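Dear support,

I submitted the protein below through the web form. The confirmation email said the job was done, but the results page showed an empty box. After a refresh the structure appeared. I'm attaching both so you can tell me whether what I see now is the final result or a partial one.
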Amino acid sequence: MKESYAARFADLLEGIAARVRSLTVDRLDRGITLTAFGTAAAVLIVAALVLISVALFRLLAIATGATGAYGAFGGLFLVAGWLSWRKGRQVPEEPPPGGSE
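What the results page shows now:
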């Protein structure tokens, strides 16, 4: 027996809906899940880094006193800032040809 046109049309619409869902919603669902887990991981990593730095500061403060800990951390940030400043402004050795003379 032949299927009725209504049943074939319903199957066609169901197939189209499944295909559209697989092309749009399923991809977005995967992206949203990855974004949520990535954001949670980034927040946890930043929190861990903050807590580790506080623990290191306190251990250093026990060993050298508060002034020594502030000096060590200040020197560390001073060196890091100097290195990033040096990396950020790389000036060429010679001026480019055809410049203003």
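Response: this is the final, complete result; the empty box was a page-load delay. The CA atoms of residues 49 and 55 lie 10 Å apart.
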